[in-house]
Amino acid sequence: MATTTKNNTPIVLTIAGSDSGGGAGIQADIKAISATGSFACSAITALTSQNTLGVSAIFPVPLDHVSSQLDAVFSDLDVVAVKVGMLADSEIIKVVASKIRQYQPQFLVVDPVMVATSGDLLLATDAIDTLKQELLPLADLITPNLPEGAALTGRSVPKIEADMEAMIEELRALDAGGVLLKGGHLEQSESSSDLLIFPDRVETLSAKRVATANTHGTGCTLSSAIASYLAQGNELHKAVHLGKQYITQAILHADELSVGKGHGPVNHFFTGHQNVR
Hints:
The chain is built from nine helices and nine strands. By secondary structure, it is of the alpha/beta class.
């Protein structure tokens, strides 16, 4: 009888909303985690009616079911890293933070999803304080884009890189292990530059900007890839660099897909780049 060898694939849990269009949210997370070589499991916090043109409705999942999903996953699967995305309101944030404290996964990456690519608001404004108080201090890394960075710090949305640098101390004050402030919204810049902010240093990560409208789900994809690389044993600095390489290639190959009439998704499974090491 033939014997089989078990593959100890690291397990990553994504806690986020569902994107019915498949380009962002839980769907993008599962694709990115799988494409980068980890096993993805999920807990859905909200159902969105969404496509490449925008979000038309949001239905938060009842709190007891968010809680039961997390109990089911954590009680059985050896979750190494958790990525948190869309949390629609304060009560869901509190439930998720409580479960993270209860089960204490090794790594936590929080993408503080507040605004969709289309500009639609995905997080109730009164929930931002709850996010800052309950969840962000538990994170090894948070990955805000510029509008999210502005919401977290109370500053205006940066127009130039100097405006990003002016946010550094306020972002450090959120007490996460690190912050990746993403500069993709500075569309006049030839490069897409992110600031990787630690308590004792700041590093700029740059990649040549890709001319494409297909950027739906970039934040979900990047944060999930970073969580995946952390689960595989990479230290945080390297995991961020690998995640940046992965999302750059996924955007570079985005126009190979033809999905929807608006902002299409990135190409998670681009040829020859399934597992960056």
